[in-house]
Amino acid sequence: MTNVPPTPSGLRGAVDLSSLVDRAQRPPQPGGAPSGAAGTGPGAAVDGAAGSETGADLTVPSLVLDVTDQTFQDVLQLSTIVPVIVDIWAEWCGPCKQLSPILEQLTAEYDGRVLLAKVDADTNPQLVQAFQAQSIPTVAALIGGRPLGLFVGALPEAQVRDVYEQVLAAAEQNGVSGRVHVDGAPATDTVEQGEPEPEPLPPHHQAAYDAIEQGDFATAIQEYKTAIAQDPHDQMAVAGLAQVSLLDRLDGRTADDIRAAAAAGPSDVPAQLAVADLDVSGGHVEDAFGRLLDLVPTVFGDDREALRVRLVEYFELIGAENPRVVAARRRLAERLY
Questions:
Q1: Which pLDDT tens digit goes with each residue over 112-125?
Q2: Cβ–Cβ < 8 Å for 250, 153
Q3: Residues involved in catalysis
Q4: Distance between CA 114 and CA 108 in Å, rounded?
Q5: Which of 45, 184, 239, 284 has its CA 20 to 30 A from that of 222?
Q6: pLDDT band at residue 257 under the 50/70/90 scheme
């Protein structure tokens, strides 16, 4: 969870998105839509975004934008005016729920000098892949259409604030120093202030989060287990335990090694469990479910039990009401019984 300084050397060259910005800024085609534009999403309500000069002010519907694979081009265009923080998250991710309010609060405090783009990892696989997000939350930035890796995991507010300052400094060095205003809000008061502070976490949850920030997954696992022992119905602790257990299993292993082992051993249960972990951490939930469910009927004994336990853990992680979990749970029952 070490920060990657937002300087040109931190750019992920394999994910150079600046060409999409160029395409977004081409002259409108007949009918008024820019070439390649989605036509909907954050940019559809932006006043004067297309062709705006660096340093200019413009109006946006909100400082916090929900972005999809289809609407991301609009955010690329906005990143030529102000830096954009990209938060790749998921509803079932415990650390994401800790980090997101911090990102939203800081974005509000910077009063239009930075935007926040929120990307749901479950429904936007192209962006997850583009930002090479192997676990969530993953936080990156866009400056002039070029991505910068920032950090992975939930950091304390003070460290996140430092990251924002670094991003703004890098943006200014690259000539991206504009400001945006929320549509309908005064320029000097673009966002509502004084939002209530989030409620403090239960002690064992907070201890687990603190341990995760230090990379001490073993301690975090123990804290969550203690919370569950005290309250077996603590669903946040159950989901947190599943999340940190996944991080612990992936710790110290590279994605290339995990995928190579899985490709070499399609019936190797430990190898398939590892690559399923990788899929889940990157938001490819259905791939993980399908991989393990297809393997269940082909193995027996301890191997089958290992697959069942891992799938149940994923169900807890993602949420019992999630439609993909409902479908996968039904398929698992069919294969087991």
A1: 999 999 999 888 88
A2: no
A3: 93, 96
A4: 9
A5: 284
A6: very high
